[in-house]
Write a structure and sequence with these properties.
Elements: H1 2-21, H2 35-73, H3 76-101, H4 107-140, E1 154-156, H5 158-163, H6 165-172, E2 179-182, H7 183-193, H8 198-216, E3 222-225, H9 235-246, E4 250-252, H10 255-263, E5 268-270, H11 271-277, E6 287-295, E7 302-305, E8 311-314, E9 324-335, E10 338-345
Parallel strand pairs: 1-2, 1-4, 2-3, 4-5, 8-10
Antiparallel strand pairs: 6-7, 6-9, 7-8, 9-10
Length: about 350
């Protein structure tokens, strides 16, 4: 329907323009009843009508649809920021148009129009590119967003959401949010939840449930922020760009993201590091009771675990598998995977 209406309008406009073009031909009488004028006016009007009928959908409908699609996909914050920037640019251009119009000809006629176009474009572009800073100023009301009394904003990675321990940490009050969830993280969770692999599907659904629990059970503020990084493809790169824009830390369990973000000077909060930091401190010579539950890598070793999940390798502990014994710590190693404790049965040291 829209194409038909555009073609009909183009036909009429093209015919009118073709008819008017006949008045511009030298030697043709400017009286449309004259035969000489009709000899040129009718063919030109017909040609204009045909051209308008054929080209109007390509000149009007398709650009209009492309513009409507671009506006529909544009985040609301960017659309509002661009509109405000355009208004500011036009306002400045209107103020400058008065002195510019008093310049000698032809500058007085040309410069106001050029100034309007340039300042309108610059205002739109400036507000589009800097609107995260404007949002920060608005939310902080003159103070830094990272110093708000309600808590420091934290940009959350997919690995932390799927992990689920963020709910317990937030419940204790060590992290109060607000938690910033980019749209591409939410889309990644949705993609994982829709996976055909049952393990990935369960992980994705658990991540979505974690967000619900953060909002409903814990009562934390969870903000879903727009994807403002259009030129980055990888999720990690987008997170780093957003963290630089918001000047806030990244909460993640991803080792590679941790390293890359740290190299760029960003603050990274790693739940695994937090878990290792709060594990029970044991020093060589101390003793503790554990259950020996399985064999170790060596022939005489047994393996047990503390309540926080720390693994204890017990030399000469194989005969005690399935029993609870007291062991004496001999060595503590800190590895990239966590802390590992070596011990021997306390009875063998007596």
């Amino acid at each position: 329907m829209l194409v038909r209406l555009a073609r009909f309008s183009g036909l009429i406009v093209g015919a009118i323009l073709g008819w008017q073009a006949a008045f511009l031909i030298p030697g043709v009488p400017h009286v449309w009843m004259e035969v000489e004028f009709l000899r040129w006016g009718v063919p030109l009007a017909a040609a204009g009508a045909i051209i308008g009928y054929v080209l109007t959908p390509y000149l009007v409908v398709k650009p209009a649809r492309a513009t409507a699609l671009w506006i529909r996909n544009l985040p609301l914050a960017q659309l509002v920021a661009g509109s405000i920037g355009l208004a500011v640019g036009l306002l400045i251009a209107a103020v400058l148009a008065i002195p510019l119009s008093r310049l000698p000809s032809p500058f007085g006629q040309v410069l106001p129009l050029i100034g309007t176009l340039v300042l309108g474009y610059l205002g739109t572009v400036a507000f589009l590119y800097r609107y995260p800073d404007l949002l920060e100023l608005w939310h902080s009301r003159g103070a830094s967003l990272t110093r708000r009394s309600e808590g420091r904003p934290v940009l959350v990675d997919t690995s932390v959401i799927i992990d689920g321990r963020i709910v317990d940490i937030a419940r204790t009050g060590f992290l109060r949010g607000p938690f910033l969830i980019p749209q591409f993280i939410l889309s990644e969770l949705q993609h994982i939840a829709d996976s055909e692999d049952p393990i990935r599907r369960n992980r994705g659904r658990r991540g979505l449930d974690v967000l619900r629990r953060l909002q409903e059970e814990v009562g934390c503020e969870v903000r879903f922020v727009e994807d403002m990084v259009q030129d980055a493809r990888e999720v990690d790169e987008k997170l780093i760009r957003l963290a630089l824009q918001y000047r806030c830390p990244i909460l993640t369990n991803d080792y590679n993201l941790n390293r890359i973000a740290s190299l760029q000077g960003l603050e990274v909060l790693n739940i695994n590091d937090l878990a290792n930091a709060v594990k029970i401190p044991l020093l060589p010579g101390e003793s503790v009771e554990i259950d020996i539950i399985q064999e170790g890598k060596e022939a005489d070793q047994g393996v047990g675990y503390l309540d926080d999940g720390t693994m204890i390798v017990v030399q000469e502990g194989r005969p005690y598998i399935g029993r609870r014994i007291r062991v004496t710590v001999t060595k503590v190693l800190q590895t990239s995977a966590g802390r590992m404790i070596f011990a021997v049965p306390a009875t063998s040291r007596s």
